[in-house]
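Reopening this ticket.

The earlier resolution said the output was attached, but the attachment link was broken on my side. Pasting everything inline this time so it's all in one place.
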Amino acid sequence: MLHHNAPAPVSLPQLPKAPTGIDGLDEITEGGLPKGRPTLVCGSAGCGKTLMGVEFLVRGILEYDEPGVLMAFEETAEELTANVTSLGFDLNGLQAAGKLRIDHVHIDRSEIEETGEYDLEGLFIRLGYAIDSIGAKRVVLDTIESLFSGFPNQAVLRSEIRRLFRWLKDKGVTTVITAERGEGSLTRQGLEEYVSDCVILLDNRVIDQITTRRLRIVKYRGSTHGTNEYPYLITTEGISVLPVTSLLLNHEVSNELVSTGVPALDEMFGLKGFYKGSSILVTGTAGTAKTTLAAGFANEVCRTGGTCLFFAFEESPQQLVRNMNSVGIELTPWLENGQLLIEASRPTLNGLEKHLVSIHKQVSIHKPDAVIIDPISNLITVGNIAEVRSMLTRLIDFLKVNNITALFTSLLSGSSQRQEMTEEGVSSLVDTWISVRDLEGIGERNRGISILKARGMAHSNQVREFIVTSNGIQLLDVVIGPEGIVTGASRLTQQLQQQAQARAVRQEQERKDRELARKRLVLEATIANLRTEFESVEEELRQISHEEQTRQLKNSIGKP
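Inline output:
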């Protein structure tokens, strides 16, 4: 049999890429935009095309030392500079340092109509001069539609545009061209035919009165890339793209344990608490003390020297602190010394992505040991279930990678709803799931707590009744009746019955003890009487014996 040796794998050269420095974009493009080639960024008005181009240049200068040229056809240099100052981009400073050139090209159709001839030769000259004067590696053309409006002859223009893109490639500069979105096509003029290396589509849509922005890599020749639609935000620090499933499940884990803040609840876990860096979900209907459990956990984290971020979607910080004071959980000291930070807002204030970015930002600033979101069910008001699940998946992964313990509360709507069907569908994502519920008896409602799952440790299978007291949450001892565990008034009745039974047993025992003592006294008296009789008889016999001896002695003396 012949054995063929397999040839050694050949290491093929990878497509060179220019990192953008934009949050998340390099991640989904797997390294950046194609180096030395043009990239088309298209989208409707207000989706951030110009901003993406400007940020691509600024990050290139500041982070990768690649000078850049911005050629604008709509806005002047002064207008562009003023527009991006709020994002911390100092275009004037970069120009003064010789790292950036901004050239505003004004195209007047009436002038073109007068001369009758127009081509892009002048543009090549201006652009070539700008590139060579600072040794530019990056170029942004914003927005190219203005060129089309100036050309009466579309055929000539198309050949000129093709020549422009070839010229840019020959110059070896990484170029971003922005273009307006067309009706039923990516751009109005079919530019994607010419810029075939990389096309990025920005979309700005309004769903249920909430604005959401989405980014999609339509094509990327010669490179793999993320193919999903990715939410992105325009924040005070520029554009932030949020990859949905970019994180691999390969994060480090901790064996350190964190207390729940309720000692009796700790005892229900085999290892007496949560794993640090794990995610915990507390579900229950309204009024089942979910927020109190969350606040107790926050208090415990701070008490043991940690820091905690508390995102409240239902109560203001003042209301939360006041309400927790009434149950013996003092949060004010931790707020004052900075160990606890409460971020309170209505979910409808922002879209889901804005909430996610806000949480990311706060976590990066404060580097907390624990994050609490109370409740995640309110996020349903700003997104559908699939979007909320996607957002929470990213959030849970992000917190796990940073070894931050996360506790989420979630409202279950209706006691008849199957608990596994939590509205956000995140019960399978979390490591520990605690259920708090109403235990309805005859004419009363009580609260019960149980652990539905705890990955990596044994846990109790009991439903424990608990009460909220002025000293926090207290779990009550399990009382088992004829039909199982009893709660509330039934628990009290059961306890009274047990006390009555114990009292009856005790009384019966005491009666028997008294009867025994009486019999002992009678017996002892009888014994004493018998002993007295015996002593009398004994004395009498002794007396008779003595008299008999005396008589015999007299008789023996009296004989001769």
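Reporter confirms the inline version is readable. The chain has three domains: 17-241, 257-477, 478-527. The first helix runs from residue 25 to 28.
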